[in-house]
Amino acid sequence: MISDPSARTAEASKVDWKSDRVNTLRDNDTTTPDAAALRTAMVEQLRSEGELRTDPVIRAFATVPRELFAPEAPLEQVYDRDDVVITKRDENGLAVSSVSAPRIQASMLEQAEVRPGMRVLEIGSGGYNAALIAELVGPDGEVTTVDIDQFVVDRARACLAEAGYDRVRVLLVDAEGGVPEHAPFDRIIVTAGAWDIPPAWIDQLAPDGVLVVPLRMRGLTRSVAFVREQGRLVSRGYELCGFVPIQGSGANAERLVLLHGEDVALRLDGDQAADADALSAALTSERVVRPSGVEVGGFEPFDELDLYLATELDGFGLLVATPAAIEAGLAERSARMGAKTALDGVSFAYRASQATTKERTAFEFVVYGHGPDADAVAFRYVELIREWDRTHRGGPGARIEVHPTGTPDTEIGEGRLIDKKHTRVLISWPTSS
Ligand SMILES: C[S@@+](CC[C@H](N)C(=O)[O-])C[C@H]1O[C@@H](n2cnc3c(N)ncnc32)[C@H](O)[C@@H]1O
Questions:
Q1: Which superfamily is assigned to 17-250 in CATH?
Q2: What is the pTM assigned to this prediction?
């Protein structure tokens, strides 16, 4: 069966969390030398890789004992920069709460530019990130962290108290309504995957505040740092990220259109139409293969290409497939994590990459088209890859604007307009000339 992407971004912790273990496992005053050494190594690694950039954030990471916020996990996991410590799963085994990976926490705190004395709201509590924020705002600042889950709230309170951060306010709240009694906030940092931006977050943000939010746009999530500009929010940067989804009144699940039992599916965001029977037939019909001529290096990220395709293509989704389906030749390996797919009626095309050197140091994007219009949809896909390569690769990236719902089209610029419940999100691609 196809699993949920949020579960795939996170690794299972080996031990279930038990609240009474916080006090017995570790002593706040005697951080073990192992933990201290691992913390120093993690900070150095995040620094050398450019995720930690500024002195205050580096100091916060070097100071807060992360192990006190993940007592259920082995120290090596706690201090692995890419590892998530899952603290709760739902009845299907999917992660619903975690202490996020240090890499994404570093990246979001750098985006947020938290200063001493600020009032900060964190949405989604694990304890650790709130402690980092407490270090950044210092004794004159204020940190409020909220969670929708009583278990998470209790756990975060216990861990924060154990680590000596009892000034952090931990509240049980559905974040959709924000926390009006403690607003305005200089920074709002959302640590669960959001599909929309509820009015409360904008209303409760100080006039020159910054909102950092993992926002899902056409199935792709980016941690976007927004500032206000003339009645709207405008991005001042974004980063690739993955988070457990927002629950409660802001929850919004993607649709899964099954194409081959439960082994191959199209994951669609929003209300795009899809004829499951015709697309299933397209999957198993003869496909066209179109090399793009565009290459990337082995370690070069290409998430910008994905966002560009999601902007330019009218029909866009993610083709997902199980390892067995990939082994059986039903889809390319890129479908393991969600191949970015152009959808055009009953035809579709998606992308994979093929090594162009024996050492697998360079790869070419190759497009696979399926269905009666396979040629046309694959051709358009290839053209867009080439356009991205010519015009946007290495450029300033996308500009993301958030307008209140009801804003007329005439007051919104050119680009891909995505209508949500509370907002209209516009993605455009300025060129650097
Ligand atoms: C990734 S965890 C938070 C990680 C945490 N900030 C840390 O220190 O690593 C996401 C949390 O968001 C919470 N959450 C989901 N929907 C929410 C909502 N509507 N309101 C408040 N919290 C929510 C979940 O219960 C979960 O605990």
A1: Vaccinia Virus protein VP39 (3.40.50.150)
A2: 0.92
